[in-house]
Amino acid sequence: MLYIYVEKGNDIMKTVKILFCLLVLLAIAIPVADALSITSISPAAGYQGKTTTVTITGTDFNSSVSVLLMKSGEDNETASSIESHTSTEIVCKFTASKLTSMEEGSWYFVVINPDSQVKATSAFSVRPQMKLTSITPTKGRVNNDSVKFTIVGSGLGDVEKVYLHHDEYGNISAMDVDATSATKVTGEFDLDDKEVDDDYEICVMDNYDIAICDLDFEITSDAVGSIDVASSPSGASVYLDGTLKGTTPMTIKDLEVGTYKLILKKDGYSDWLRNAKVTNGGTTTYDADLDVIKAATTATTAPTPVTAATTIKVTRKSTVATPTPWPSATPTPASPVDPLVIIGGVGLALIVLRKQ
After folding, report:
1. What's the chain's average pLDDT?
2. How far from 118 is each of 75, 88, 94, CA to CA, in Å?
3. Rg for the chain (alpha carbons), in Å?
């Protein structure tokens, strides 16, 4: 070690100052190797059932670095793949099936260098997947500055933003968004001076800035008209596009311009159907005469006489020879014979004898 002595003044203090200067020079001349560190993770959450790509920034990431998630009582889960890597940034992917198999809650995000340097942070959360089931209403009229809505689904407890997305017109953010539970979100849209289209998509975003987009929403024209409906007899049920609106006579107001299926129904009468047209600012009138359903007439049919089957007895002459009976030992009593027959027989016998 080099010591410099000064003849006058406080020699010891001057020596200390010189030593300090030398140390500073050495520190500047010899660079200190960077230590493994994690600066940020984005996003800081992954959803079960959805593949998530995570970007990690930091320092001294080795070319053969490993990335995994750890949680007490659970098996370690290694990243499904590392998409890209530098000494200050790692992009890795966790598949939907891997996240689905993991326990919900906070996990340690761990980066390990081959030289056994380890850095961990507990900034990653595994969450149930956000799903959108329905939105009510499914449409809103342009230039309406307060269209209140309710979204129903699952995994919605941390939703902070709701917006309508359109590829051409951009996003329309909702106001007063409130995740009232894990299954319901409410809010309202201001549709003043927005573009009329049926191709908007409902999107929700949670407090980790993870968004999902699903369900359709339509912004309709503010051109409206009315339909006035009467019937004879009155009291018929009025259906417009399958929805019961009331009974005749009635006026259905504030209808969007277009064509509707109008049906009147009343017991005992045939249904009355029309394609009803609504014009901007106009009222279309329909007056229906309902037809009575006639009772079906049953004709009386004369009974058909039943003819009893007739059996005809047919006697056929037998062609079978009747055998001559064997003489019986029992004498057959003589039948009384006419005397003339006897005399005639005797005469015939005499004639025969003479010829012989």
Report:
1. 81
2. 18, 15, 20
3. 55
| Bridge partners, residue 232, by sequence | 289
Put simply, whether the predicted model's pTM sits higher than 0.70 gets the answer: no
Q: Give per-residue pLDDT as tens, 33-42.
A: 458 889 999 9
**Out of 270-279, 282-291, 347-356, which region has the weakest mean confidence (pLDDT)?**
347-356
Domain region containing 154: 131-220
pLDDT, tens digit (0-9, with 9 covering 90-100), for 165-189: 999 999 999 999 999 999 999 999 9
- Do 216 and 135 fall within a single domain? yes
Sheet of strand 272-278, all strands in order from the earlier edge strand to the far edge = 243-247, 237-240, 258-265, 272-278
Domain final residue pick, 95, 127, 159: 127
Strand partners, 247: 237
Residue 29 falls inside a structural domain: no
Alpha-helical runs (H) found in the chain: 11-29, 96-101, 339-355
43: Cβ contacts below 8 Å, ≥ 6 apart: 52, 54, 208, 209, 210
